[in-house]
Amino acid sequence: MVRLWVFDALWSYFNPRGWGNMALSAQSAQSAQSAQKPVPAFWAIDTLDPLHGAASTDMYQKLPARPDRRYLVVRANHANTPELAAEDLLVWVLARTGR
After folding, report:
1. Which residues are registered as beta bridge partners of 73?
2. Residue-wise pLDDT tens digits, 39-84
């Protein structure tokens, strides 16, 4: 059972029609917006990411429009982006949970 879940997770990352395709996922979130409760989005990207710039902005714009979504650019590489974005993410999450 666990092995199947691991395979599904890995395949979804490499599958051109899977959740690893960020542009497709953003479009899916946009089309599902009317049927579900809106979900806020926090997008952190580093300046050295190949998607930084037009590609990232284009995918972010496909997410459902919400006043509390956040797009954060950090001067980093892919390895240390989570560390540099962590404080902003925490503040953003706490603001949505009333803490």
Report:
1. 45
2. 788 888 899 887 777 767 777 887 777 888 898 999 988 889 999 9
Which class for 60: exposed (0-12), middle (13-18), buried (19 or more C-beta within 10 A)? middle
Q: In the beta sheet, which residues pair with residue 45? A: 73
Average confidence score pLDDT of the chain: 78
Q: How far is CA 52 from CA 15, 16, 29, 35, 66, in A?
A: 22, 20, 21, 30, 21
Q: Give the Cα separation of 62 and 43 in Å (integer).
A: 12
For the chain, report the end-to-end CA distance as a whole number of angstroms: 38
Rounded CA separation 99/85 (Å): 19
Distance from the Cα of residue 56 to its chain's centroid: 10
Q: Which residues pair with 71 in a beta bridge?
A: 43
